[in-house]
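Tokens for chain A. Residues wanted.
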């Protein structure tokens, strides 16, 4: 039966909009972009077959306006809407509104979004399905005295979490009974502010776990497949910076067990589409369900590279009611990866200024290349980066036979990358790739907090590097105009000017590329 989907509205911007548009075209579908007044010149607008202006730059007036997005899909005769990640991707009311408009939502049923969005409901469902959850309670707390009783039973330290939560908001660590009352009130008001619901529950606090998540795909023909794990421990204030697959901490036996738990979790909520089950992995090898992300995630490409699958094309096929093209090992166990992949998120943030988001114009962009190098970008030279949206400019993803080879390839790719016009996370990523703990795979969710300051300390401040670079360039020019043998910069075998002073080497390696 030919698919009823021929044209898809992509309700997003930046790199993920471009990623989805490419997948539509590969599937033989037309893609309609939406954009705000700040994104008139954005690559996703030109890549699409048609584009619809939604409104003013603030997301509430453009990408988050449900009725405008649905009206755009109807005006352009789309049959489906792909939400990407962020924005409207995990709003059950949006998924319902899309269906009510007679359109296909490229994502899970609204009931699965709702079940996983309520963290105590999710814990009850996971427990019933035999998925290991973090020790704690599965119903909301009535008051502070109940919180004290439960904490005494679990043993301190405990975490208060918002039932409507996720992503770390409305969360408070409580290390002793004396802190409970003020922590409870603080978490409650933060949750009320962030989610419009102040209900809290409690978990035993896990000390220095890894954040490991399992990618799943489920189709409407009753098949669920686990595509192994991603290691996502390298994050800062709940924003991931670097992800990899497979995790250095996961053996084939553990992968099998985590895959079984993830497929059981998906089955328990009637999941359809691409989704991710997040786990806390303890040093002991125990793992506990944390939450489920009911969308395609930023870091999906590392899974694509080690499993040879296009997850966005599979999403489109599943939404059209077709069977997914991949087959798991059976019994819910996760597939085995081939090689290794790492993703660095290239953001418009200044690592040397507490990762402050930056605005500016991308004046020049040189994208890295070569075997195993993938660039999922959302901006090009000439584009203005504003503070209206997420600072993600692009993702640099590399594949290699082994983890070591992949790190080497990532270092090379990061050296090739040139972004002029605004500060980015590029140089910080290079330092992580060179960090001994990272190279040994010794990671947990506190990694960046622990090594970040050290990594930033080893580098000259960008302003100083720039000043040195300008001086080096002027000196080189002076020598060139003087002529003669010593006037030429001699290339050496490894591409670095080993005959330059240490400052000159720093300038060549970093400064002259700014
Ligand atoms: C936890 C935890 C330790 N123990 N739960 C952070 C955001 C939300 N998804 C849940 N989070 C955590 N829950 C228990 N019982 C530690 C975190 C946590 C975290 C989790 C994953 C990735 C990064 C993190 C950073 C800080 C805290």
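Reply:
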């Amino acid at each position: 039966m030919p698919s009823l989907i021929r044209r898809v509205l992509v309700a997003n911007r930046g790199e993920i909009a471009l990623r989805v548009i490419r997948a539509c075209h590969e599937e033989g579908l037309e893609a309609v972009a939406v954009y705000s007044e700040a994104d008139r010149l954005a690559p996703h607008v030109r890549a699409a077959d048609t584009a619809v202006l939604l409104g003013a730059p603030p997301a509430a007036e453009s990408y988050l306006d449900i009725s405008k997005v649905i009206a755009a899909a109807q005006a352009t005769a789309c049959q489906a809407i792909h939400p990407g990640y962020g924005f409207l991707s995990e709003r059950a009311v949006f998924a319902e509104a899309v269906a009510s408009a007679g359109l296909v939502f490229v994502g899970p049923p609204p009931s699965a979004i709702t079940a996983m969005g309520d963290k105590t409901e999710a814990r009850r469902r996971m427990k019933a399905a035999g998925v290991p959850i973090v020790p704690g309670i599965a119903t909301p707390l009535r008051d502070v005295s109940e919180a004290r009783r439960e904490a005494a039973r679990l043993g301190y330290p405990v975490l208060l979490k918002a039932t409507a939560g996720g992503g770390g908001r409305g969360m408070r660590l409580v290390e002793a009974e004396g802190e409970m009352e003020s922590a409870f009130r603080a978490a409650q008001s933060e949750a009320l502010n962030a989610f419009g619901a102040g209900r809290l529950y409690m978990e035993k606090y896990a000390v220095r776990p890894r954040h490991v998540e399992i990618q799943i795909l489920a189709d409407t023909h009753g098949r669920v497949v686990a595509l192994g794990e991603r290691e996502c421990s390298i994050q800062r204030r709940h924003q991931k910076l670097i992800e990899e697959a497979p995790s250095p901490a996961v053996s084939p036996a553990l992968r099998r067990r985590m895959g079984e738990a993830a497929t059981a979790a998906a089955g328990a909520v009637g999941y359809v589409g691409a989704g991710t089950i997040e786990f806390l992995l303890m040093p002991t090898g125990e793992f506990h369900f944390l939450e489920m992300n009911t969308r395609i995630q930023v870091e999906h490409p590392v899974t694509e590279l080690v499993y040879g699958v296009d997850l966005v094309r599979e999403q489109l096929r599943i939404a059209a009611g077709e069977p997914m093209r991949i087959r798991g090992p059976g019994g819910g166990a996760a597939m085995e990866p081939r090689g290794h992949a790492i993703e660095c998120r290239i953001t418009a943030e200044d690592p040397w200024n507490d990762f402050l988001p930056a605005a500016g114009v991308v004046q020049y962009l040189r994208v890295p290349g070569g075997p195993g190098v993938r660039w999922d970008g959302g901006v090009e030279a000439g584009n203005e980066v504003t503070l209206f949206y997420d600072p993600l400019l692009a993702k640099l993803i590399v594949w290699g036979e082994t983890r070591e080879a992949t790190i080497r390839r990532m270092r090379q790719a990061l050296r090739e990358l040139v972004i002029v016009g605004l500060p980015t996370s590029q140089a910080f990523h290079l330092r992580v790739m060179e960090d001994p703990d990272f190279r040994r795979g010794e990671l947990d969710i506190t990694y960046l907090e622990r090594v970040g300051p050290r990594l930033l300390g080893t580098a000259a401040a960008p302003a100083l590097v720039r000043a040195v670079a300008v001086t080096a360039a002027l000196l080189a020019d002076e020598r060139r105009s003087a002529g003669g043998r010593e006037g030429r910069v001699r290339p050496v075998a490894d591409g670095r000017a080993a005959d330059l002073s240490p400052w000159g080497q720093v300038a060549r390696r970093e400064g002259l590329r700014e």
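The chain has a mean pLDDT of 93. Residues 134, 159, 166-168, 203-206, 211, 235, 238, 280, 290-291, 445 surround MV4 (CB under 6 Å).
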